[in-house]
Amino acid sequence: MSELTELYQEILLDHYRRPRNFGPLEDADREIDGHNPLCGDRVTLRLRLAGDRVEEARFEGSGCAISTASASMMTEAVKGKSVAEAVELGERFRSRLTGGQRSDADDDLGDLLALDGVRGFPMRVKCATLAWHALREALSGSVKPVSTE
Question: 91-110 pLDDT, tens per residue?
């Protein structure tokens, strides 16, 4: 196993075992539920916006290691970003995992690159992108539950 692969596994396990931003969010502006029926993952995403910026992002739910780690990394990645920046980041992340073009701009994905390994496993891609689907819908103002199907 390469050192990079080992590092990515450590990052995923750390975010799974000690998820960042896990728990309720008082005074949330946006709240949305997401479900991956194939794996059973469930997530509730709550956001607090300050103008056009994501001031706070938190999640609750249950799921596999990939789903939980991805939600944890996502909440860290979008804090402080404008709504447009957060949506664009989500689109680049989902595109990267679903076989889209990769570019040097993806280098700024940081810890999210640890999820690259799921690209070859379509069922696991749904686990990794559940929270991101919820983010896109929440930022659009939707309250309708999100499904990966």
Answer: 999 988 887 666 666 667 88
